[in-house]
């Protein structure tokens, strides 16, 4: 057989073997995050399961959102580990809401920063404990190795999955918006601070000079948090179980594929990378019929329609005085209101308002009677509002929620009320009325909806294609630059520019000295002759 | 009717009208470039026509490749204008080949640079004359306005279409790899010179310190050519017909969509932007059966198979001594050779070699008997070789050809012979034998082929989707940053960093002076007391 024959045979065999492997489903190890992050990871898992893949999910012993084995996955529970849960999260969030309500002063900003930093430290401590627990459990690690997964699917808001993928030598795919050190793009794509607003800064992509200064300061704060609070915790785990040459930040940046939970209908346009795939709104789907009692309530709204209100998974209770104000405002409206609310029933609640523990949010947002969505600004809810073209009144509580809402405000689809303004001067009622009565809000959200839906492939299908692509090719090295391995001064060509500037200076000095030398020689000769 | 009713009606009407417009086909004004660039624009035009769109093509009076009206398009011929044609191009190219054959010295590099700059100046002069001719012809411009095109589809290697789109206030879509000032990405995406090699530098994405210095120097040369030779020509046209506030470089960067003629199987991974869509290899398709005489010739090669050789559309003739050497090398091989060659029949030609004026390159590359492709390194040919998984011996002549071939060499699919080495020491024969006998070349090209073909949509369908997307939404503003409108010092945050550094210095100085003041006061008091 000529050499090419061998090659072709080998190649054909590999293709057939790979096809067989993928047709019969791959094996995926999922390392998710808690809370609302799990909600959308679960959607991906269900879709992967329905395509014949086998899924194992790593979770903490005291998990909050991640239920035990389901028809779609098996769990690998790490003994003796905590996770984010309401008892852990809610007191911190309540303190943060309290601080925010005091208004924006340097003191409240500093208090918020300290509270936020503490939360970050604690969160990453939990993650480090979890991954340490796994690495120390030889039996667990051996059994994971023996299962021969095809890839690790990870939400990198914590670093557990990143180090696990390295230990198991597996391709790594992110379901990501946040990484351990901030917004995901910051780690992988060039991010000029002149038009890329930092999370928490409350800035858009069009900034004045003073706003650009604020943005730069926020960047320094983020960077400092990463360098001093986050990175060292994970690096310590790397040092212990791998070697000091293995940099945690390199592992983080070296993922094969980044499935980003945004699209550019929502996010400001910005530089990106070939291995970043946008799947914003992958959880959205057409509305299904409502349960009979809800449909009856919705229909009873007549031509005025319905307002929805939900503050997301993390905060089920707002401060009592605020809920009272909100309930009173709703009571003055001709619309019907469905409010996801878990606390005491506010005394000022009107007959037009239905309190619910849970609501089929997507189906309600897609109902033609729905006129407005009062939201806290979590990405899941906002993407659903974009998908269904429903305008928003935003009540951001903490984290990225203001920044998320700002993206819709800038496109004319949302109005934002900060926490310290909600219960003053009928602000809440006025905001609702403005968004209901000014047609541009709805028009803009429907324009965003038409842009968002106009894609060659559905975002979920795109995500599934690329996850399977990484399985088929055992990674996606051709899409990934390794520029992050360069030291910062080389990456930014500081060394080259200094060298060239030095060379130019040297040439100029040589010319100057030569001319001076020549000149003085001529002068001397002239003096001798004279 | 309530306000929302009005909005919904307006929106529905717009959607119905747009759908009707698109279903019945849009109107596209194509401003192409000459030579091989036209070959792939023509493929896009045919595909657009087959989807029911009406296409007009702007061409020069003395056009080379762009034929008069076809079943797929009508031409708008601009009177009194030249275009690139063999008489214009070939003498320059022959001079450039002569210089290259002398080997790489500083003198030959400088001569090449001068020759290349002259070519650029002349090329852009032709384009400027063409667009000036159009703008001065009021009847032509009025008729173009009256036709109400949906968009301009342009190859921005020249600036004609860019200014035409601005004058007609139309969305602008590029079919692009090169812009008037270099590789397309340089104008739109951040391009750190530490790992993005400049065209002509012959560097890859992994560079030593000295190579990074070379790369920086190449960047300065490119930038200088743009600033001093290219931009002023087009800016003069802008000044004359628009206003000095309209910057040509802003118009160039402001296109709605960039359909890039590469993909990341071919191109090194690098930062990109949301409005850049990769359609590399959109011209590739499965091989069709060969004409009977060619099939017979190919089959006569037996187990040894066939070698193809083509030097592209621009250079049909190689220097006589070189063709003699190449023919003699081919004669020593057991393979059959099909050589696209237009000059005199070399005396050393063997019986195994068939000279042809033209060949069905795609069908031959896709034939199972084809073992190797001797190519000049034009993108079209290389993309076809990737698609069919055929290894390459590259003979780069000029322009980007060496850099293109380098991308395949780095992936182990090609061997490159520079012009000054072809006819020495049996180099050509040895290169052919190496690529034929070393299985890794074929294996690597087949791996690239499988990566290239593994996409959720065919590149041509992707391109068509996005062209129609721009028609449906009258642009793609949400995918485009307007950061290029910032002055360079703001874009790179130089002003912000200087301001903050100044502020920190001021604070430090104030503290220092206060301490000194305090210290001297204390000292004085002490002295008084003493």
TrEMBL record, chains A, B:
Specify the superkingdom: Eukaryota
Per the record, its GO cellular-component terms are: membrane
EC number assigned by the record? 2.4.1.17
Kindly give the PROSITE patterns that the UniProt entry links to this protein: UDPGT
Localization per record: Membrane
| Signal peptide region | 1-25
Q: How does it sit in the membrane?
A: Single-pass membrane protein
Q: Which GO terms describe its molecular function?
A: glucuronosyltransferase activity
**Keywords of this entry:** Glycosyltransferase, Membrane, Signal, Transferase, Transmembrane, Transmembrane helix
Specify the enzyme's EC class, one word: transferase
Query: Which reactions does this protein catalyse?
Result: glucuronate acceptor + UDP-alpha-D-glucuronate = acceptor beta-D-glucuronoside + UDP + H(+)
Q: What is its main location?
A: membrane
What are the transmembrane regions?
496-519
Q: What family does the Swiss-Prot or TrEMBL record give for this protein?
A: Belongs to the UDP-glycosyltransferase family.
What name has this protein been given in UniProt?
UDP-glucuronosyltransferase
Q: Write the gene name.
A: LOC115579816
